[in-house]
Amino acid sequence: MKYDTLIIRYGEIALKGRNRKSFYDTLYDRVREQLLDLKDIKLKKRFDHIEVVLNGMDYQQVADRIRHVFGIQSMRVAITVDNDLESIHSGALRVIKEEEHIATFKVSARRKNKDYPMTSKDLNYSVGSFILKNTENVTVDVHHPDMNLQIEVLEDTTRIYGKVIKGAGGLPVGSAGKVMLMLSGGIDSPVAGYMMMRRGATVEAIHFHSPPYTNDRAKQKVLDLAAALQKFGGRLKLHVVPFTNAQIAIRDRMPENYRMTIMRRMMLRIAERLAVKREALGIATGESLGQVASQTLESMNTINEVTNYPVFRPLVSTDKVDIIEIAKNIGTYDISIRPYEDCCTIFLPKAPKTKPKREQANRFEKNLPIEELMEEALAGVETIDVGKQTEALEDLL
Ligand code: ATP
Ligand code: MG
Prior knowledge:
Helix content is about 40%, strand content about 20%. The radius of gyration is 27 Å and the shape is elongated. It is an alpha/beta fold and about 400 residues long. β5, α4 (about 120-135) and β6 (about 140) form a beta-alpha-beta unit. The protein binds adenosine-5'-triphosphate (ATP) and magnesium ion.
């Protein structure tokens, strides 16, 4: 049997009162983007759900595409039959038979068409009896059924719902404004980006690159990470910042044990400038409290001094093992563990200061042409539309 419809339901967005419409439209756009090239199907905006008319396409293929889209609470497959009782009976039976391992069921009919000659209660009874007569080993349980067979009588047709597929939850990307994600080639920052997207933030990534100390494969790795994040929120921009001269200046002019702190402060300053330019309202990083020297509270405090933009650290309280698990689930882990080093590892001291002080950092930085280095880096930013790149690549294949 083939289901003909997939119904997409949203959860939390329904609660957003007057903003409901814009949340809904954003979710619709995110869904549409993922399904754009499936020419056979049709999307319809409905009051409290999105309807996907499958036109012969397998629902699983569609569900797989959108199961990462934030804002979807659940998806439900359905068949559409005529309104006469005989069609409803046989349709309900087909749906029940499609589900394996069902021992108990109940029928929940609803009528959108109030002129329908039977009441919902009569329909429940009639369909229930028909199923009992035509199946073996299935009984009714109105309290805890394995399957709640939902039937919805519309104006001219009736919809019978089958299995429920869990959605990704969260809020649709694009419903919460923009943040700049500091994206290294590591395990943590892509996960941080995913978490921000989960709450509806649009993400643009920033990567600091230090050629020739870091090579093109390190950059490719970051591009691939950005591409992997796209399935959660559509197109993504990646800003690659040339950071070599800043790192050389820091290496040559700053005391060894403060180099890491000051490098991070430079990164954050540049990220803030890009945030202003790109109209982002915050910066996100993959930092997790206590994970490494740069992520002690003292370090975060000293690094954070250079910006008054909110710095979001969605992983701040997450253990590494749990971060790794999320990275595996979202498909970034295998990319992150490729061996190419990013700019930081190459220039950094073996024993960075774990408790840097703001006053010290400020004093050392007097010997650094900060503004000049920032301007030089910003002038060389290469912005890549990762979505476009992926499309172009697929066109070639
Ligand atoms: P990750 O796994 O994300 O690389 P990490 O455990 O290696 O994190 P750090 O190297 O201290 O931690 O980096 C902390 C955060 O600083 C990263 O999560 C990332 O947000 C940002 N960051 C580090 N290096 C870069 C870079 N080359 N470009 C952009 N952001 C960076
Ligand atoms: Mg790293």
